[in-house]
Amino acid sequence: MERKMFDAYVRSMPAPALRPGDVVIMDNLSVHKSQAACDAIQARYAECLFLPACSPDLNPSEKMWSKVQQILRGIKARTNEDLVAGVGEALDCVSANDAQGWFRSCGYIQS
């Protein structure tokens, strides 16, 4: 994706849905480091935050996938069909409380 496409996407899709106080967290993909995209987010009184570079300990998605992988290991799927069902089952086990805890432990939410 090119930066122009990303900027257009941000302006047309997520930005209009943002509310004051929302936080948009992006990784360090070069197209994400766009002042125009951040301006569109901030124009909605939302905040634009970037994940630390190469820091899985500070990345909430890494913590989520760790939980999913642990559940999948317990399921021990041996067929593609069982694996697909297991992934759905594992993802269903991820709760809003889990997400809040992961974001808090990574320093994105203050206690």
TrEMBL record:
A molecular function (GO) held by this record is: nucleic acid binding
Cross-referenced InterPro entries? RNaseH_sf, Tc1-like_DDE_dom
| Domain Tc1-like transposase DDE, chain residue ranges per copy | 2-83
The protein's name is Tc1-like transposase DDE domain-containing protein
Record the organism.
Desulfobulbus oralis
